[in-house]
Amino acid sequence: MSFNTFGHLFRVTTWGESHGPALGATVDGCPPGVAVSEAMLQHWLDRRRPGQNKNMTQRNEPDAVRILSGVFEGRTTGTPIQLMIENTDQRSRDYGDIADTFRPGHADITYHQKYGLRDYRGGGRSSARETAARVAAGGVARAVLEDLVPGIAVKGYMVRMGAMALDRARFDWDAIEGNDFWLPDAQAAPEWEKYLQAQRKDRNSVGAVVEVVARGVPAGLGAPVYAKLDTALAAAMMSINAVKGVEIGEGMAAAELTGTGNADEIFMGEDGPEYGSNHAGGILGGISTGQEIVVRFAVKPTSSILSPRRSIRRDGSAMEVVTKGRHDPCVGIRAVPVGEAMMACVLLDQLLLQRAQTGAAGPVGRIG
Amino acid sequence: MSFNTFGHLFRVTTWGESHGPALGATVDGCPPGVAVSEAMLQHWLDRRRPGQNKNMTQRNEPDAVRILSGVFEGRTTGTPIQLMIENTDQRSRDYGDIADTFRPGHADITYHQKYGLRDYRGGGRSSARETAARVAAGGVARAVLEDLVPGIAVKGYMVRMGAMALDRARFDWDAIEGNDFWLPDAQAAPEWEKYLQAQRKDRNSVGAVVEVVARGVPAGLGAPVYAKLDTALAAAMMSINAVKGVEIGEGMAAAELTGTGNADEIFMGEDGPEYGSNHAGGILGGISTGQEIVVRFAVKPTSSILSPRRSIRRDGSAMEVVTKGRHDPCVGIRAVPVGEAMMACVLLDQLLLQRAQTGAAGPVGRIG
Amino acid sequence: MSFNTFGHLFRVTTWGESHGPALGATVDGCPPGVAVSEAMLQHWLDRRRPGQNKNMTQRNEPDAVRILSGVFEGRTTGTPIQLMIENTDQRSRDYGDIADTFRPGHADITYHQKYGLRDYRGGGRSSARETAARVAAGGVARAVLEDLVPGIAVKGYMVRMGAMALDRARFDWDAIEGNDFWLPDAQAAPEWEKYLQAQRKDRNSVGAVVEVVARGVPAGLGAPVYAKLDTALAAAMMSINAVKGVEIGEGMAAAELTGTGNADEIFMGEDGPEYGSNHAGGILGGISTGQEIVVRFAVKPTSSILSPRRSIRRDGSAMEVVTKGRHDPCVGIRAVPVGEAMMACVLLDQLLLQRAQTGAAGPVGRIG
Amino acid sequence: MSFNTFGHLFRVTTWGESHGPALGATVDGCPPGVAVSEAMLQHWLDRRRPGQNKNMTQRNEPDAVRILSGVFEGRTTGTPIQLMIENTDQRSRDYGDIADTFRPGHADITYHQKYGLRDYRGGGRSSARETAARVAAGGVARAVLEDLVPGIAVKGYMVRMGAMALDRARFDWDAIEGNDFWLPDAQAAPEWEKYLQAQRKDRNSVGAVVEVVARGVPAGLGAPVYAKLDTALAAAMMSINAVKGVEIGEGMAAAELTGTGNADEIFMGEDGPEYGSNHAGGILGGISTGQEIVVRFAVKPTSSILSPRRSIRRDGSAMEVVTKGRHDPCVGIRAVPVGEAMMACVLLDQLLLQRAQTGAAGPVGRIG
């Protein structure tokens, strides 16, 4: 069954296909009384919008979001918020050649196998356009989160793109917004661009690793075992198109550490516990410690490439696929604001859960 | 809120603490008429049982599972199956010294912060003992899965333990059961043992990467977007104690690939589509392709070590923690049967979802 | 938290307020490959549309439904179906007098208390207009249901309206569509109309009891205990605006019966078990028997009346409310197609659940 | 699929059959730090225990509840609470004659049809014994509820038993605990007993209506539309064995009222809004008003009677059923504490939801 909802209390259901009339998100369970406007959401959508620069697809859509319900006189009412983005740049070309073809690395073949039919125009439901709805919903989550936890901040950036890797020694939080790659290293950006353009000219694409960090998250969010905050974040990030790996803190590298090396020692600071390191990514036993929450996810290289790949048609006959059209050479770039949106949704959801169970939006147990 | 349930239709809720009278799993939504017995479940529990060899903790519990409901005359009835494992080896020592102490890398501090109190005996709910309940539930899932999909096979093994890494060129499926590490390389096992014993003597521990593979999974399981099969697997694995990273197929390494390198080309075989490679880990667009499903997860090094680590007490005073007691030097070893159990539960759940939506437990759309 | 979703596998989330730009339903989990069109859904919407005759409010809206996603080339794709109905007849009058007033019998006061603010225009989320979204979603459910279970039929009708009660001896299934009251007694309809117009002239309103029957439902739908089919139906009907009571089969009157009088004796018919009576309303032990499913629900009299009622303003001051505007004298009439829609949604959801757990959309165990 | 869970945040999953080793409830999402003991739960279980007097079945089980997890040093820890009740009085008689027989009014035939097999001993999962688990879980809910809302009170009583009806003019809240029928009229109790014994001697049984009232419930619980508090209560009560009708406030009788008669006029009292009447049963627009919450449900007459009823065997052959054994002549009596338990669970769940969405366990919007 296709469940298109995520979240327990702050629940987002996305809907819509690439070439249908519209797509959007139904946001249920939003706390009342928070200022939310189309302009606020548009800010975040503009960040992920394609056609902004030559490192993205040239499909040009304004992605204008409309709020159809749940907001009255500029404030959330506590009832469902419907966010709609109309599809305006659907080129009315003939998709007949794609209808019976399965592009390697795409959902074409599995959608066909699962459902027996599919909306093949532009990838239908599997299009990266679906993530626009997430970003809009994430904008609502951010507004509420900032209302409930003043000073909370969520930021994503790229740490790898194919062969290019961020030099952590040069990490600059303030550089992130200043380049096309959300790269926390202003100086390296031109080199990344050169690399990506070379891939594009080579009719190829590359993968990426995106890191999303949340600062100012109170201790106490998450829960033991299946409802670990790690679990919620892993599910959220892995649910993004083309994502194939998720890490919290040290992530996969934790396997290479020893117990002494991995331990985040605890000290008493002025405002509560402090930690000597953050191997755990801000989550212990599934629950936030108050440190930075650190999540990374890998986005596979864009499957739509101009280089021919062997495949089959629905009738089983062999063919070669060359995916024409306007595609990102690294879809991971656009995944940065999507990762931020998912982080915001998860944190708000967990905050509401914590508030439900304990009556507080932060830690209950005192230390010191 | 602490949700201790996983699965949509085959739903498992685990309960219980390390040193309470018992722990177990409530399994709801199990198809009726399938042969399930305590002996069948015990088989899987015995695989994860501590005290089996010197590479594991010496805590010795039989971990005998009892079926309290939902099975009648040897067959599932479709009603909830209650699985209970009594805690028999709870040493009645004084835990007073732990009660007000927060061990680095443990859930002690966050449980305290979240709830204001905690069952500190043996880690309480955060104990790895919780995974015994998962393995028991996974035994039920396996029985049903094998009933519905003859020939399906789920197997886990270690691919890394600290500095030791599996040599893929020597991969031997049949060697997995023959050594203490579920290592698919019989020859390498003694070296792994030597390495681990050195860590233990050094009062240290190491992390691990476990890989779980499912063969014979029909195409069509999973769903687009948030309900991607990748998502369900990532959530399931990340929910295991101490897991901090999850990968499907290429996983994090997909970021370093190009589109041409990552494409799994498609060919027509005798029984349907075949693929030239499996970078995607058997999942495209969130839906199984019929290839092997390949998942990996990283387990951090055991936090309970005999080397002193700095921490604080509940009153904020500084102290040094040395965790005595019986602990696995690499908790990742015992995570192998747990990962298998989670894979089995997820696949069965997805099979039921596919059956609900399409009436078939496999692919609906024909190819060729 | 406001959960606006119903259903487990066929999941409907309604959204929208009376005077916002639009309202609608997000339908997730719909089986693929079923023919669904706007015209098919419009048919059911037209049945509940106000302004059709003098027994309804004179608000005149076309209630035209648009399918924004999830249907491709006339067939469902298995992805979320977004149904949108634009609000076109929102009179731009000043609602200032209502903003701070709590109308007796309305949600005004409790919405204010719960959320601290409310969209007061036309009742906002509490408007009966929300049921249009349910009817649209119900249209999808019917299409799928008829595809899966040929011959299944769902029909609603009125059995009471204030002092008027259906004479069961004159029950005529074929008369239902032929009058303004969905009354299965063509001869009595004029008398009901006379009665209702008298109430309207008296600046009053009346309540109603609606009965919804499903024929051709296979045995085996529902489940024991909490997931009784009775439970799903009770929740579905009680969730409709203004409904305050729900009955299955004998309903409340079962309390006055004896065990001998209430027993539905069982006989062997040609096609399976047959029953001597249907006190149970087609549901035994929470599971359908194959008989007619019979549900009734009571709709309270319309709270918006022209007769003055005492109330208070937000500042606590006393006042008298006279609700002007265009209101149904018996909102129960319009609840008939809504009840049908809920029945269709519940039955489809249960059918999918049965298919998930047993692989069959009907009974598994043989008799005879 | 058999979902045996109820509640959104305070989640109760019951498990177990009449003649298995044990039955119980898994309670997830319970707030931490609340005093809960086996003795507290036993108090409520003792109220529903059979064998207490001649108006109940003579099956004699202590129904001793054990807490297996989730409570530490007398307080809830926020982790799952496992409640187990062992079945001690399972008479080891031969059930062979029931195995292939379908008793009219019982779940025998539908369980067989749905699942293809059933645990026929004592009704298996459909036994009224399942309600013991609910009462135990309800005891936890009460403890938390009283901790969060001092002064809250939940009480159930009978208002009808077959031909006997409570005279509302003689209603006495303090009489409820003093007789076998939870009858709020001490004087009438002997007459009810005489009536019931006559039914028993006549080898018959009767139905009942139970009313459950909650006092001291804050305004603001519940939500619009599908999540109406009415919906949650209807689902909870309808999920009890043998219940076939549920009413809130006026219930079905609302259909016979006019708008003027049904309106609960609002006045300003010293502590907030007050109402001139309570036709709505304390719920407006799906949300609690602060008045008494009033729910009623009908329990059908016990199906197990000594009078012969016609039925069939599994092979389709005709037979007559006479249900021997120890059965309540009016199972509605024992449903009183069950209804209370369900009310407590629903109210706590709603309180947690309100706390999640608004941060308050009561009303947010000020009046006056």
Automatic annotation (TrEMBL), chains A, B, C, D:
Known catalytic reactions: 5-O-(1-carboxyvinyl)-3-phosphoshikimate = chorismate + phosphate
Enzyme Commission code: 4.2.3.5
Cofactor binding annotation: Reduced FMN (FMNH(2)).
Cellular component annotations (GO), alphabetically ordered: cytosol
Pathway membership, UniProt: Metabolic intermediate biosynthesis; chorismate biosynthesis; chorismate from D-erythrose 4-phosphate and phosphoenolpyruvate: step 7/7
Superkingdom per UniProt: Bacteria
GO molecular function, one term: chorismate synthase activity
Binding sites annotated in the UniProt record for NADP(+): 48, 54
Essential cofactor(s): FMNH2
PANTHER family (UniProt xref): CHORISMATE SYNTHASE
Annotated function: This reaction introduces a second double bond into the aromatic ring system.
Record protein name field: Chorismate synthase
Gene label: aroC
